[in-house]
Design brief:
This protein has 143 residues and is an alpha+beta fold. Helix content is 39%, strand content 25%. It is built from 6 helices and 8 strands; from the N terminus they run ββαββααββαββαα. The chain has helices at 22-27, 48-64, 68-76, 94-99, 120-128, 134-142; strands spanning 7-11, 17-19, 33-39, 42-46, 80-82, 89-91, 105-110, 115-118. A 6-stranded antiparallel β-sheet has the order 1-7-8-4-3-5. Strand 7 and strand 8 form a beta hairpin. The mean pLDDT is 90.
């Protein structure tokens, strides 16, 4: 799967639908996609290939950890399968969008193997607050 890169802003319509950026639609051809919130800041949209790996990890965690079932329930209860319609739109359930602070505009951010859905203001705030580990991480990645 080619990497998902870049950022694109789109409006949510009155029915809770938002168009996937065409650059992402070309990459994400497997259907359905899995939309969930595992971090408070945003939603993640996973192609089937990536979700299959995460699913294996979740099952392994549940089997290996005595209390792993609680974490698995927290993740899977906030997950929904979404399938782009003929116009490339997905529907974001209202309760899920509210949890992530999504309003009229959604910022799609390509994150290599998944797509993050952000409230644009929250994303900009997140970028302004760099993690102290960023320099170390960048050095490991880029040399």
């Amino acid at each position: 799967m080619p990497g998902l890169l870049g950022r694109h802003e789109y409006q949510i319509d009155a029915k809770g639908r938002v168009s996937l950026p065409s650059a992402f639609r070309r990459v994400v051809s497997e259907k359905p996609l899995v939309l969930l919130q595992w971090q408070d800041s945003h939603l993640d949209l996973f192609p089937q290939e990536t979700w299959a790996d995460i699913r294996k990890n979740l099952l392994s965690h549940r089997r290996a950890q005595r209390d792993g079932g609680a974490y698995l329930r927290r993740i899977t209860s906030s997950a929904v399968e979404v399938e782009p319609d003929n116009h490339g739109r997905i529907r974001i359930p209202a309760w899920l969008g509210e949890q992530a602070g999504l309003g009229g505009t959604v910022l799609f951010v390509g994150a290599l193997d998944r797509i993050e859905l952000w409230n644009p203001a929250r994303f900009e705030e997140d970028l302004r607050e760099p993690d102290p580990e960023d320099d170390r991480f960048a050095a490991q990645i880029f040399g």
